[in-house]
Design a protein that fits this description.
The complex is a heterodimer of chains A (260) and B (508).
Chain A: H1 2-11, E1 33-35, H2 47-50, E2 56-58, E3 64-67, H3 75-80, E4 86-88, E5 103-104, H4 117-123, E6 127-133, H5 139-146, E7 159-161, E8 170-174, H6 182-191, E9 197-201, H7 203-207, E10 229-231, H8 238-249
Parallel strand pairs in A: 6-7, 6-8, 8-9, 9-10
Antiparallel strand pairs in A: 1-4, 2-3, 3-5
Chain B: H1 5-10, E1 12-14, E2 19-21, E3 27-28, H2 30-42, E4 46-55, E5 59-68, E6 73-81, E7 84-86, H3 96-106, E8 109-111, E9 151-156, E10 168-174, E11 177-184, H4 192-198, H5 201-209, H6 216-231, H7 237-265, H8 269-290, E12 299-300, E13 303-304, H9 310-335, H10 338-344, H11 352-358, H12 362-366, H13 374-377, H14 398-421, E14 439-446, E15 451-458, E16 464-470, H15 472-483, H16 492-499, H17 503-507
Helix pairs in contact in B: 4-5, 6-7, 7-8, 7-14, 7-16, 8-9, 9-14, 14-16
The chains are: A alpha/beta (260), B alpha+beta (508).
Chain lengths: 260, 508
């Protein structure tokens, strides 16, 4: 008992508050990407062929757009643009209610709006989630596990992971949806009682990530499963996930919206 | 352990991270290939990798990489086969998963293989072009079954209770006692090897980072090691040192996380909570260096993409020192609590014999006194100059695997502190150009789970013809199914956690 108390006292209280975006994160942290259109030399530039992901693409009018959902948050993506138009901010907030909300000419994300009043009254103070992993590398799961530790402590907001889809209010999907996992995902989704939420976590679930055109994956959550919250990242920082969940539940303290 | 003269002729000497011409390797007849590999294994060698690749339109080339750990030697042997060849598994259990893999990837049948079941359940992706691909049924899996009046079957997964990757476990049990455990994987199969072979290098390195998300540094270093050997690119001492630091931080994060998870599984909450936070501290150290909690973006062909500045080195050193002070009382709290000891003792035993027979690697091997460690046996990079002692335990149970983790945590903390204090000067990245044609390179790395093997083979143009990835989990999933019979079903979660194998690394 004495050993326990000594160990406990040495630990302090490590739980983080959700503050202004980027505070406390190291200088090199790669958060939401940004595209500076004025620095982009669209003419005779081969950056799109050099880009190792599908983060930047051209619209049919020939203008570049940044898809945060397809971004792999790799320094190689920034390096692919030799004019320095693509960079990473330290802003960890980037979850959106729609897939299109992650696509813009500048990398601005349409941050997730809260659920309607009825859904908020159901889930706002207690949200039970079931994790389904379908063709991932295990990275996003590591961060989902971290969400329950004493630092991020999602349980203080009433968010917990449960053992069965029957006990859950929604599912969290990670992975590029491998062919071998597709049926299990469909069945788990069907087993969650309605009304239910679907949360896609990580570049793979949003867009297929590094596996996007492999024949063994479907390249992200298939259209048959409607997604309520898209959380980009490779893998997303636990704060990114927590921020997205709290926005969805309308639980975010107001000061968290103050930009840097 | 001396190789017979016949053996020496048939085997081509290889070394960790050194490329050799593939033509220097004599193509053996299948009987000679079999005899060579079997003789070598009988003489104390171990099969580190065995894989196939299409040869011409109508054949498959088998390539075996053998390791003599006590003398630090590697060697290769090769043969060309048609649709069928006599299996090696009948006489050498450690190639069983490799032959299942060859059969699934290349469409060849190793005749006489005692358990030729699908490994990942996908149609062949390295089929010789002239062979027709049959219709593939992913649901067809022949589970083994034990009959008996009081025998019952328990099926678990692919969707589990916690936040875990998908896998299917099927127990044949008598009451609570497990008679047999069969593990069916493949749910995480994403087609990694085909992507590594077919995409350009800037994208392939991102795929390598996503082979197993908790082993980003381990796999990416092995991937880059193979490429650098083929490109004759030499890393600077500073880059090697930074890679070593990152590898040990990755080991620390995972070992501390696992010690916490093991504590959690025996309901010892204080240690679970404290270790969980310390895991995060190691990930945060990786983020300070690389901008990502798992070290993504750091390891690149030719070195590393981020330097550790002198300010940063001081910060890392201070944080590691602090962690060293914090971790000891918690580890002692866990390991000296009698109720925890009695819960971990004697559960999920892997014997030394089972380990050498099946060729288990890494932490699992070291927990039953088989001192296999690539950093020590086939040293590379910074580990040639800064040796880390090999940590072992003898009992082979959950307690032994926890103890080895604790020993390795202490060694890695010392290593990181020592390295950041005396980083060699120089650049962190050198040019890594085109690859030499028709060569083979083996790159081994001691990831936190154990031996990671990447074998790259180039074609006439210096493009990647075959890139074979072997995660330690490929070997060690068998260890879990060997360890469980005789234990209670209710001990499975604890047992599974003490191995903490990668589904993604196995499934590729």
């Amino acid at each position: 008992m004495r050993n326990y108390l000594r160990a406990r006292l040495s630990q302090g209280t490590p739980t983080v508050e959700l503050g202004a975006g980027g505070a406390g994160l190291p200088e090199r942290f790669r958060g939401r990407p940004a595209l500076d259109a004025s620095a982009c030399n669209q003419h005779e530039c081969r950056c799109l062929t050099r880009m190792p992901s599908a983060a930047v693409r051209e619209t049919n009018r020939g203008l570049p757009v940044l898809d945060v959902g397809a971004c792999l948050f790799s320094p190689d993506e920034a390096a692919a643009c030799e004019h320095g138009a693509l960079s990473f901010t330290r802003d960890y907030r980037m979850a959106s209610r729609t897939r299109d909300g992650l696509v813009s000419p500048t990398g601005e994300v349409e941050l997730a709006a809260a659920l309607d009043r009825r859904m908020r009254s159901l889930f706002g103070r207690a949200l039970r989630l079931r994790s389904v992993v379908a063709g991932s590398c295990g990275g996003c799961e590591g961060e989902l596990v971290a969400l329950s530790n004493v630092v991020f402590d999602a349980a203080r907001f009433g968010v917990q992971f449960v053992a069965s889809p029957r006990h859950a209010d929604g599912i969290v999907i990670t992975g590029a949806i491998s062919t071998n996992m597709r049926t299990a995902l469909e069945r788990t989704y069907a087993a969650v009682p309605e009304p239910r939420l679907v949360i896609a976590v990580g570049a793979c679930a949003v867009s297929g990530g590094p596996f996007r055109d492999s024949v063994e994956v479907s390249g992200g959550v298939m259209p048959e499963i409607p997604v309520d919250l898209w959380i980009p990242g490779c893998p997303p920082h636990p704060l990114t996930i927590l921020d997205g969940l709290l926005r969805l539940l309308g639980r975010l303290p107001r000061e968290a919206d103050v930009s840097e | 352990m001396t190789a017979s003269p016949v053996l020496r002729q048939a085997l081509l000497p290889l070394a960790n991270r050194r490329a050799v011409s593939i033509d220097a390797m004599a193509t053996l007849g299948i009987e000679r290939f079999r005899a060579t590999v079997l003789d070598a294994v009988a003489g104390g060698w171990r099969v580190a990798s065995l894989f196939g690749m299409p040869e011409g339109g109508n054949h498959v080339r088998l390539l075996a990489v053998l390791a003599d750990d006590t003398r630090g030697r590697l060697a290769g042997a090769t043969a060309v086969v048609g649709r069928y060849y006599p299996a090696l598994t009948t006489e050498c259990a450690q190639v069983s998963v490799f032959e299942r893999e060859v059969a699934e990837q290349c469409g060849v049948t190793p005749l006489g293989h005692p358990s030729l079941k699908p490994l990942r359940r996908h149609p062949p992706d390295h089929l010789p072009p002239a062979w027709a691909q049959d219709e593939y049924d992913r649901a067809a899996y022949p589970f083994s079954h034990i009959d008996g009046e009081e025998v019952h079957e328990v099926a678990v997964g692919p969707v589990h209770a916690g936040i875990i990757e998908p896998g299917h476990f099927r127990f044949q049990a008598h009451g609570e006692r497990v008679l047999q455990l069969e593990i069916m994987l493949g749910y995480q199969h994403r087609g990694v090897e085909r992507l590594l072979e077919s995409t350009d290098r800037t994208r392939a390195v991102l795929v390598a980072e996503s082979i197993a998300g908790d082993t980003v540094i381990g796999h990416t270093s092995a991937y880059c090691g193979a490429l650098e050997a083929l490109a004759r690119s030499h890393k600077s001492p500073r880059a090697q040192s930074i890679r070593g630091i990152a590898l040990e931080l990755e080991r620390l994060a995972n070992h501390l996380g696992d010690m916490g998870a093991i504590a959690g599984d025996v309901a010892f909450q204080p240690a679970a909570a404290f270790f969980g936070r310390m895991r995060g501290e190691c990930l945060n150290l990786l983020m300070t260096i690389s901008g990502n909690r798992y070290g993504r973006g750091l390891v690149r062909p030719g070195g590393v993409a981020f330097d550790i500045t002198s300010d940063m080195a001081g910060e890392v050193r201070d944080r590691v020192k602090h962690l060293r002070r914090e971790v000891r009382p918690v580890a002692e709290l866990l390991l000296e609590t009698a109720s925890v000891q009695s819960r971990l003792d004697g559960v999920g035993v892997v014997t030394r014999e089972a380990c050498t027979t099946h060729g288990f690697v890494g932490l699992v091997a070291r927990s039953c006194e088989v001192a296999r460690d690539v950093r020590h046996d086939h040293p590379y990079g910074v580990f040639r100059f800064a040796q880390i002692p090999v940590s072992t335990a003898w009992a082979g149970d959950v307690l032994a695997r926890t103890l080895v983790r604790w020993l390795e945590v202490q060694r890695s903390l010392e290593f990181v502190e020592e390295q950041v204090t005396a980083l060699p000067a120089g650049p962190v990245k050198t040019h890594c150009g085109g690859l030499m044609p028709n060569e083979i390179a083996v790159a081994m790395e001691e990831g936190w789970r154990g031996e990671i093997v990447h074998v790259a083979v180039t074609d006439d143009h210096g493009d990647i013809r075959r890139h074979k990835v072997t995660d330690p989990s490929l070997h060690n999933w068998t260890a879990l199914s060997v360890a469980l019979p005789g234990n209670q079903i209710s001990d499975f979660p604890l047992c599974n956690k003490s191995f903490n194998l990668s589904y993604a690394g196995h499934d590729l």
